[in-house]
Amino acid sequence: MHDIVSPYNASPHSELRARITGMWEQLRRSPLDPASDEKMGNSDCSYLYVSRREDIEIIRQKVVARREIIGANMPVVVDYLPEGWPNGGSKIPDDRHGLIYLPCDYVVPGGRFNEMYGWDSYWIMRGLIRDGHGGLARGIVENQLYQIEHFGFVLNGNRSYYRRSHPPFIAPMVMEIADTFSDEERREFLARAANLLSKNYSKFWKEQRFMPKTGLFRYGQPNHSLYEPSPEVIKGERDDENQSHYDRLGVLVTQIRNRTQRNRFHDARNQALRPCVWRADGASRESGFDPNMHFGKMGLDTPSYNPVCLNSLLKLHCDIVASICDELGRSSDAGKWKNESARITDAMQAKLCGENGIYTSYHMYDKRLSTRPFLTSAYPLFAGIATQDEAKATRDFIFRHFWTPRGLRAAPRDDDTQWSKIWAPLNDIAARGLRRYGFNGDADTIEAAFLGTVIEAFDRHGALFEKYDPSAEDSAHIANVVGGYHTNEKGFGWTNAVAADIVDRQPGMAPAPERRRVSAVPYGDGAGGVPLAAFAAPGL
C-alpha cells in the first residue's frame, strides 16, 4: 500500500458529477447527421456513406426527414461505400470523405473527435450505464457488432478514411451490456453476439493480424495497397509552422544514426518517406497509442511488435466467448475457446514475460522485449493472465516507473509524445487490474490521485480533458498537453466515465443510478438498419 493523502475533498464532487451527467447528451450524435469533421476542414457539402448491404433509398429518406426536423441546411450526399471497403476497393477522394452510417445513436469522445470510436466506446458505454442511459449504451454495442457484420471488424472510427481497427474491447462491452438485460433477452443477445465475436476473432484478428512464428498478434494492415498517408493527419495535425506529423517524421528519420535503420524509413535519393512509414503509422493509430516511443521512435516499429496490450485483450476476448458458450450450453465450442485462451497465455508467458515477472511487448525480428517501459504492462492483470507473484512484481513496477502524485503516466518520463502523459483508460486498467489481484489499497491510491487531477483541472478550466500533464507546475498548465494535433480535447468521453466511477464510490456520495433493464428502452435511430445476421455456431 502506498499511502498518499487524497488531494481532493467532498465539496467538488457534486459539481463535477453534475457536469459529467449533463455531458452525455451534449456528446450524443445521430447516425443520420453527417457531423462536422474538424480534422478534415470545412466543406460546402457533407457525405454519409452506407454499407452496400443496406437499402440506400430508405436511409436517404430517413436523412431527409431528420434534416427537416432539425432544420439543417447543408447539402448531404448519401452514397454507398466503394466495393471492397475497407480492405480494398477504389479510393475515396480526400474532399469527399464523410461519416459512415450506423444503425443507432452513439456518444462521441468530444472536441475534434466527432464520431464513434473503437476503444473509447468501452469507457463511454460504462459511463452511460452508470448514469442510467442503458438504451444509448446498448446502441453503441450494437453499432460495433454491426461493424463486425458489415465490415469484418470494429472500426477505428466511423469515418470513411478510417480503414483500420482499434484495440479490441468489444467482448467485454458485450458482457457488460448483457448484464443489464432480462434473462430472456440476455440469452438471445448473447447467442447473436457470440457469433459475431467469433467472426471478428477468426476472420480479422487471426487471419489478418496473427504471427504464426510467435503465436501472437500484432497491429498493422497486411495489405500493401493500403499503405498511404492518413488524410486526417495531413489536413488536421499541423503545428504553428504548418508542419504536419509526416513533415516532422521526415526530419526525424534523417536523424537516425544507424544507417540501415535510416534507409529503412527514408528514401535519400528522392528525399521522401518510404511506404513502410505509412504502414507503421497506421499500425500505431490502430493500437490507439499514436504516437509513442514504446514501439520504436514515434511508433515507427509498431508492426514489428507483439504488443502486450493487444494480446492480453484477445486472450480476454477468448475467455468471454468461452463463458458465453458455457452459458448457452455450447460446451464443445466453449472448450475450443478455452484452449485458444490457454494457447495465448502460454505464448505470452514464453515471449512477453521477462525474468523479472513483468510482461511487455516483444520485437519479433530483433527477438527481444521492448526496452522502454510502458503502462500497458498492467494489461495482463486486467485480463487475468499474470500469476499472483507476477502481479506483485507488476504492482511494484507500476509504482516505480509510472507513479506521480497526479496519477499514473503512460511512460516513465516526458518523451515529446502525448503517450507519456496521464490518461484515464490506462489509469483505470491499472487500478482494476490491481483490484483483480487483491491490491485494493494501491488501486485506491491511483484512483484518488487521478481524480484529484481531474478536479484540479476542472476547478481551473471548467472542463474535463482527454489527457493531463503530470509535470505541470500548477493547475493553470495541467491541461496544456498537445500531441500530433494542436489541442487537448475537451469533453471527454473516457475521462468522464472513469471520473464518475471513482466519484460514485466515494463515502458520502449518493449511489449511482441502479443498472436498468434496457430491453424496453429504444436504442436504434429508426433508420431501418439491416438486422444483424445469424452466423454459424462460434467455433474457431
Q: What does this molecule look like?
A:
This protein has helices spanning 13-26, 56-70, 120-130, 134-151, 170-178, 183-208, 231-236, 245-254, 259-265, 275-287, 308-327, 331-351, 379-382, 388-401, 424-436, 440-461, 493-504, and strands at 28-29, 46-50, 76-80, 99-100, 106-107, 210-211, 216-217, 266-267, 272-273, 305-306, 362-363, 368-369, 403-404, 407-408, 422-423, 467-468. It has 540 residues and is mainly alpha-helical. The chain has a domain at 226-299. The chain has a 3-stranded parallel sheet, covered by helices on one side. Helix 4 (134-151) crosses helix 5 (170-178) and helix 15 (424-436) runs antiparallel to helix 16 (440-461). The radius of gyration is 22 Å and the shape is globular. The two termini are 42 Å apart.
Distance between the termini: 42 Å
Query: What average pLDDT do the residues reach?
Result: 91
Low-confidence stretches: 1-10, 514-522, 526-539
- Largest pleated sheet: 3 strands, parallel
Strand order of the largest sheet: 3-2-4
- The class by helix and strand makeup works out as mainly alpha
Quaternary arrangement of the chains shown? single chain
Strand residues, percent: 5-15%
Number of DSSP E strands? 16
